[in-house]
Design brief:
single chain; 62% helix
């Protein structure tokens, strides 16, 4: 049996829950998505080289297995966290916020393993994912009320 602190009668339309419950969280989401979008745009404009792995040793070595394993663990863990956030999203704008970031992140990983000609073709799709995420964050910012009602203990 689920333990809830409030009954359905105590809920109102101005009380929200989810990933972005009020304007303060929406401002934080907008700032973070803007930073990620700006970084992706800068990388695209400057044609910054990409590394295949998250960590690479400074010397050529055939013992990359622990570092490659760490890279796969990090990427998998990050995608798992994004999946959990996607499932916790309460409306379509929150899903676009998380989904756009997940698509941009996943395409960014794939870009590191592609030849430069294919990377140039795929990078705008990654930027579009981050742009969708930023647009969703801005929509949440302008749509949410500035304060939400805090449930009173009984």
């Amino acid at each position: 049996m689920a333990n809830t602190d409030e009954s359905p009668d105590d809920r109102s339309d101005n009380q929200t829950s989810g990933l972005v419950p009020n304007r303060r969280y929406a401002i934080t989401a907008a700032i973070l998505t803007f930073i990620i979008l700006a970084s992706a745009l800068r990388s695209f404009v400057m044609q910054a080289p990409r590394r295949q792995w998250l960590l690479e040793p400074p010397w050529q070595s055939h013992k990359l297995t622990p570092l490659v394993g760490f890279s796969f663990f990090f990427w998998g863990f990050t995608l798992w966290i994004l999946f959990c956030f996607y499932r916790a999203a309460r409306n379509r704008y929150e899903r676009f916020l998380v989904g756009g970031s997940a698509v941009g992140f996943l395409l960014g990983i794939v870009e590191g393993f592609l030849p430069s000609a294919a990377r140039i073709e795929l990078e705008p799709a990654s930027i579009v994912g981050f742009l969708v995420s930023f647009a969703a964050a801005m929509t949440l910012l302008f749509e949410l009320p500035s304060e939400t009602r805090v449930p009173r203990p009984k």
